Amino acid sequence: MDTNTAAADPRRYRMREKFLDLGEDFTVEDEAGRPAFRVDGKVLTLRKTFVLEDLDGNPLATIRKPLVALRDTVVVERPGRPPATLKRVWLSIRPKFHVEIPDGDLEVEGNILAHEYTIRRGRETVARISKGWFKVRESYGIEVGPGEDAPLMIAVAVALESFDHGE
Q1: Residue 66: which domain range?
Q2: How far, in Å, CA of 83 to CA of 24, rounded?
Q3: Cα 145 to the chain's mean position, in Å?
Q4: pTM score of the predicted model
Q5: For residues 113 and 99, what is the distance between their CA atoms, to the nearest angstrom?
Q6: 3-state DSSP call for residue 134?
Q7: pLDDT in tens, the chain (167 residues)
Q8: 6 is a domain residue
């Protein structure tokens, strides 16, 4: 199955960091444990940058914080597509983020301590992120809804992780 396109059925991925790899690189696996994507943590950059790649090393998204931003912001740049901008919403009781994208903004709500998030477009849940689905330390489950852009949802999960660690 091509993991880079929208699918008719929900898909689950597991993102697990490998702390011993230089630059915080890690692999995103499908629910069967097969590699689906790679995340390359760039070391020699002015700002924390991650590149989501397919298994052939082609970049699908670059995730980085702007050098100057008025509030917590992460930009997701995708080849041939307008960027997505993830911003923390400060006037909210629960942790909340807004993702600005041309084809319909997303809202992300969750529990930072439990690492549980729901991503919605309007009232529709389009993806869920959960640290509790796997017993492996520093693992995250990402369930992407039918017809949704899996690389974008995985990039949002990487961006949320950067907020969690205050990077």
Answers
A1: 11-164
A2: 23
A3: 14
A4: 0.84
A5: 21
A6: coil
A7: 445 555 667 799 998 755 434 467 888 999 888 999 999 887 655 567 899 999 999 999 999 887 776 668 899 999 999 999 999 887 766 778 999 998 889 999 987 767 789 999 999 999 999 877 666 666 788 999 999 999 999 999 988 877 665 55
A8: no
